[in-house]
Amino acid sequence: MQRSTAVIYTLFFTGALAFVITHGGAKGRGAASAPADAGADAADAAASPATAAADDADAGSDAGAEGIVQERGPEPAGRSDAGVTLLSGEAPPSLPAEAPKKVRFGVVLIQYRGAQGAAPTARSKDAALALARELAEVAKTDFKAAIEKGDKGSTDDLGYIPRGVLEPAPEYELFSLSKGGVSGPVDTPRGFWIARRIE
Q1: Which residues of 66-98 are buried (b: 16+ CB within 10 A; e: fewer)?
Q2: CA distance linking residue 167 with residue 80, whole number of Å
Q3: pTM above 0.85, yes or no
């Protein structure tokens, strides 16, 4: 009995050892490891050497013959300021001290080509803005009707969100509203938002 148990354990150990040698795990495949006190950036870089090589290649350094270069498509026009500026083109002012720390809200979403999650066949940004202005007027008196005319992702209650999560423009618009208030259109990376503050 002891002999058969010893043989089984030996076979199991040998199989496990062979598996580790042939598959090698992350370190056996040449992945770098970051020291424990190196911080999150070092750990991210160590966890993704292909990304680091691609970043080096993008920065103009030689990634080597075996370096992986990720192709990036052209950046959609006009997306650099989405969520950063108000529709007027100005940077949003700072929130007042009495602004809430978190709010509960709903949103009408109007997407356009180039926005995150939008289909390539989505409406133009100008057409989206015209629709957003129209729906903002509807939303002031009947938010649910505006939601029905908005794009997928529109909802009357997204729940609570704390300050510091959204981009500056939608955060300013949302956290400046009084309870029950409805914003005008605000550009975000996801498309135009019309927000209603619930609480």
Answers
A1: eeeeeeeeeeeeeeeebbebbeeeeebeeeeee
A2: 12
A3: no
